[in-house]
Amino acid sequence: MSDGHPLLGRSKTWRGVASAIVLATCVAFLIGLPWWLGVIIAASAMAGDGLSSFVKRRLGLDPSSMTVGLDQIPESLLPALACAAYLSLSPIDVLAIVLVFSLGAMAASRVFFAVGLRDRPY
Fold this sequence. Notes:
By secondary structure, this protein is mainly alpha-helical.
């Protein structure tokens, strides 16, 4: 980009996006949701993750740097909004999804650090 920063972080790959979509599609089917809803949820989650990465690069933050809120909110808000009509989610439901996802992601990060899957805890 013209600002000297990459568009997204180094850890973002098309393989990761495709894997997320395939996995979410399979999970949606297994739990009785339409397969296409799995595609929408995964694609919008990946779009949210990409948006977070893009903003972090524009702010000059290091790749894989942890930013509370920016790392969790877009990745959970976009899929919640994308499937809100189909799942009849209220604004309170969407807020609850974002809150539960955010707290869960931060807790999981600490567990991953404890078992050696992350270099640092959140």
